[in-house]
Write a structure and sequence with these properties.
heterodimer, B: 2 strands
Amino acid sequence: MSLKSYSRARAVHVMLVYTGGCNGCDIEIVNCIFSPKYDAEQYKVFLTWNPREADVLVVTGPVTKHNEAPLKAIYEAIPEPKAVVAAGACATMGGVYKNIHGDIPSEEIAGPVDEIIPVAAKIPGCAVRPEDVISGLVSALPLLLNAD
Amino acid sequence: MKNVVRIVLEGTYSNIKRIIFASDRVTDMNLRSKILEGHIVPTDKVAEEPCIGCAGCKNVCPTSAIEMVKLENPVELMEGLIKEQKPVLDSLKCVHCYYCHDFCPLYALFGEAGTIHPNDVGDVNPDIKKMLEKPVKISDDKLAYISKFLSDTAILRKREDKKNSK
């Protein structure tokens, strides 16, 4: 365990990016980190809005055409090692926005997320369950800590 | 001034309690140990016992996230009705439109909880035998509406044409 991993294990920073969904998953994820019941801060996981500070990028929503370039810019700004988590039905496969009807794909959506940036983990659900988010986060921590 | 001092003292006291005795903590310790040991499992999407295996949910699903799997031991629900298959829902394809739950005959015709739900079925224990033998009154409009969806071959045909054209 190097000094980098030791210090990283004590402050894992999550950055949340909203790319045009209905905001339900954002509320659930912020709720997992800040609320007294789920409280991911007890596992030393914190929320940040600065990509240079982040270790994990959590993306919610289908990626709209307007959000495609900013999402790529944010992904490139995050230092290695990094992991991307797609949370919710929209981020995993487009959700109701891309699949308005099963046969008619929507034209305003550039997503889902894994067509734009490489995704490490997908969380299904609409909206996602806080238990799923936190257990996924905890299981993904070794990926970050064994990087160097 | 008195009030300010009182607020400072009260705040200090409660913060010291929080730091030393971990008071105000409302995390469920059971949940916490489950998370750290990796015992969180996804919720059940299909209630396999009361399901009658009619494949209505599969036909109505807009993204074909539901597959029917053949049962090893077919169950006879009543005379002339044998359950041979059960639905399996793929959460990574599901868009959570709730059509499968809303067009499940147990919900649409009998008003009970449906046996498939994209989030969580919960406890569904209707008495199937009793329900199927009881005569039900359904208006013709409702029957036409439901059957339009449950047996809409236009959608199925379109899908097959797509497959053949590839």
